[in-house]
Amino acid sequence: MGKAHYSLLLTAAAVLLLAGWPLLFPDAAHFQQVLGLTCLYATLALAWNIYALSGAISLGHAAFFGLGAYASALLNHYWHWSPLLTMPLGALAGVAFAVFWNWGFQRLRGVYLGLASLAALEIPKTVVDNWDRLTHGSMGIVGLDRLPALALGDFEMDFGLNLQAQYYLLLGVMLLAAAVHRQSIHSRWGWTLRAIRENETAAQSLGVATHRERGRALLLSAYLAGLSGGLYAHIMGLVEPALVFNLHLSVLPLVFSFFGGSKMVWGPVLGAFILYPLEQLLLMPLFPMGHSALYGLVIILTIFFFPRGIAAWLAANPKSV
Amino acid sequence: MAGSESQVCLEVRQIKKYFGDQTVLREVSFSLGEGEILGLIGPNGAGKSTLFNIISGWQRPDSGSVVFFGRETTAWPPDRLGRAGLARTFQSPQIFPDMSALENVLMGAWLRREPRLPLPRALEEAGHCLFLVGLLERRHSLARDLPLAQQRLVELARVLATRPRLLLLDEIAAGFSLAAVQRLAAGLLKLRDRGLTLLLTDHLFTLLEAVADRLLALDRGEIIAQGPPSSLIRHPEVVSAYLGTRYGANAGGGA
Amino acid sequence: MWVGVPIIFSGFFLGSFYALIALGFSLILGTGRAFNLAHGEMILLSGYLAFTLWQYFHMPFFWILLICSLALMWLTMPLHFLLRRLPEPYGLNTLMVTLGLALLLQNLLLAAFSADYRLLQTDWPAAAIPGLDMRFPWQQVLLIILALLATGAVHLVLQRTFLGKALRATIQDREAAQMAGINVNRMALAAFGLGGLLIGLAGPLYAQNMYLYPAAGVEATMIAIVVTIFAGLGRTRNILLGGWLLGLAQSAAVFALGSKWRELVGAALLLLLLHFRPEGISLKKENG
């Protein structure tokens, strides 16, 4: 019981710190922007990890991200719907692709699932790239609506232009995703996923419909990844195939989750908050080209030295129940 | 037949199975009454594991059918059979390696659909099942760290926690000491008294002799004899099947 | 002239190169059990090395081939010692470590050479093909000749030499090979060396015939994976066949749909192959 209190306290302190620092430094616009994007990529990492909890390593999550971004962008571009509507709807495009994925890859495991997911990314990318009349092809779509402003009485939050407000929005989305992620570990369903991950034969003989449960994890994961894509599109105000269907977006969540600890509730968030600011704030000014080498190096070092992630390594007892 | 007056639990009808041009099972038929304990014996490669896999849904027969409590289940996937109350253990124990022994058993009690138990009740039941197999004091050990024989017991406790109606035990007592086999036998008989039906294989007769109502001898995919353990063990065909393969030049050639 | 002729020629040209690319990948996967996702980036590394030697040191092309091959051989062998230390699940871990390596190499190339497109331009004349109204650039002829020579050489090494027999035995059944007294670790090292040699050879040819840019490696890796899974391990003839089929399919797709569809061909073929063979490459069934 003491341990549970301790971790609750730690969580509360971390959330308070994340929520409080922009109030102390209201002018640190660059920091707010970078940490806002950190929250966005942490959301993507949490999404990726929900699927990974069922034992699947995906190299294709950029497909969900890109589809979410494009669907939201297209709805906004052609029908001028508000991003507040297009983002949650657009994420469903990622889910639709996940349905196809879950059906097509049901017999694949391990390395071969990874390879297939890597190849799967090419499908939406090529289609979007070539469907000029709908998507403007590789030119992309520009001039998308920025995130809207919300007014509550006198209190106004402009999520599009005010970086501080944007940061809070992205932090909120991330905390929501983290809550879903927490449930995907600690609930009965979370343990179902864990059982599938640790021994699929045993899980199945206990009556777990492994294919269906893994599919649920994938759909949930794809929805959250698509939502991150939609947010990205409207933060940037543009989408391009090469930008949102980038393999880099498949690799980032993998690196964050593995580095942070893919079996820990806060692992993906921890990974994102250590690595992304390090890359953007420290390495990018030093090495304008090639600063992403960090992620390559980190994943190699993680697998060799902290195979359970640094969150588990930091905790004295790596077991979490 | 021992359980003929009660309900039929399992019926295996004319199962045939080939691997390539090799016949693994040819027309195997038998039935199992509710509450009966049936032992399956036979040398390596006789087809015991294939038969187990077919009954529990992991393999499909080339012809023939399996009927479980009146329903034809030949084409059911293993998880559906599991939910219907057919549980099994595997020759090489299938455990959740990074969970503790108690968590392993909890998976049986907690993930079950009917009845859905709240976590505290499921934990209680898991602890009880772990106690039944005599492993309660090792409940916090990681399953991967347990010796093989104890992993088998964890697996047994886990399937018991699913409250099965039919339990298939594949070589459950391999590597057990004589005392452990006797303890296990006593436990299995108690379970049967509560209505559980059991189908089990074992290389050594010690366990089967102690618990089985009836034995079925399988050799090269055929049932060559059946009857109560005491008579079957002296059955000439059974003896020759065992001795023939165990001491013959090509042991295990039937697989 | 029938439209099929240029498609077949370009398919044959691409396909021969694809076979060369896949050969190294297949050897490393078959003998070392390592999925090398950095394969394409290593070819690029060799390509950029060739580009540098050509552009700034004006070295003759055949020296470049030699230097690149040897350089990549010596760079690839240490990878064996790195990957050997990986824990289980071995296949997945090699996949992720080499993914990290790919990212690392890609960014180092980006830092060193920027994202610009580069081409190793040799001003060799074009060769006329007798009887056809077509001219073939010499570098394409050279590529086809070298790719076929390398494939043939690997085939001969695998079939005729003692090392080749030991390599094949390791590919087919690692445990049995070990019991027969073959040092499988040394075989893996040899495969990494030979694979590195082939990667090194492919680099200059790549730089000469296709544009170099740091992100190009993924496609080359994908091609290696498709051809390898199509062919099965240690089967040189199937690799050649797979390379040609992929090359033809790509040329046909480019002709019919446009150049932007080319990358999808490999991906779609990989998905189809995995759909029908979900276990990927089943090692035990292969009989050399």
Described by the principal axes of the CA atoms, the overall outline of chain A is globular
Unreliable parts of chain A: 317-321
By CATH, the topology of the largest domain in chain B is Rossmann fold
Counting helices, strands and paired strands, the structural category of chain A is: mainly alpha
Task: Please estimate the helix content of chain A.
Answer: over 70%
- In total, how many beta strands of chain B? 10
Helix tally of chain B equals 9
Q: How would you write the strand order of the largest sheet of chain B?
A: 6-7-8-3-9-10
Largest interface: A-C, 43 and 46 residues
Protein model, in words:
The complex is a heterotrimer of chains A (321), B (255) and C (288). Helix content of chain A is 74%, strand content 4%. Chain A is mostly helical and 321 residues long. In chain A, the strands form two sheets. A two-stranded antiparallel sheet of chain A has the order 1-4. A two-stranded antiparallel ribbon of chain A has the order 2-3. In chain A, a hairpin with a 2-residue loop joins β2 and β3 (155-158). Chain A is globular, with a radius of gyration of 19 Å. With 255 residues, chain B is an alpha/beta fold. Chain B is 36% helix and 24% strand. Chain B has nine helices and ten strands. In chain B, a hairpin with a 2-residue loop joins β9 and β10 (222-227). The longest helix of chain B has 16 residues, at 178-193. In chain B, 46% of the residues are buried. Chain C has a single domain (4-116, 135-276), classed as ABC transporter involved in vitamin B12 uptake, BtuC. Helices cover 74% and strands 2% of the residues of chain C.
